[in-house]
């Protein structure tokens, strides 16, 4: 009985080592992580900035029209 136990234990240890070696060989060939979440975040940030700039410019125009009715609105000065 103990001989079967030690045979089972030795086989298990060998196969565990074999699996580790196999995955160590396969690891460099795995595909890289996806950039989709990062690209999605950058796109969302870009369009958030575009919408914010449009809203800011519209508020600038409305305030200028209140102070100077009927005049052409000059180009908004940069805010940085």
From TrEMBL:
Keyword Transmembrane included in the entry's annotation: yes
Residue ranges of the TM segments: 35-55
Alphabetical keyword list: Membrane, Transmembrane, Transmembrane helix
Name of this chain's protein: Uncharacterized protein
Taxonomic source organism: Eleusine coracana subsp. coracana
Gene for this chain: gb01968
């Amino acid at each position: 009985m103990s001989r079967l136990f030690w045979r089972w234990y030795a086989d298990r240890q060998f196969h565990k080592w074999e699996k580790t070696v196999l995955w160590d060989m396969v690891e460099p060939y795995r595909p890289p992580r996806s950039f989709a979440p990062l690209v999605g975040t950058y796109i969302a940030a870009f369009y958030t900035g575009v919408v914010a700039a449009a809203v800011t410019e519209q508020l600038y125009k409305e305030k200028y029209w209140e102070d100077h009715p009927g005049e052409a609105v000059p180009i908004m000065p940069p805010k940085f």
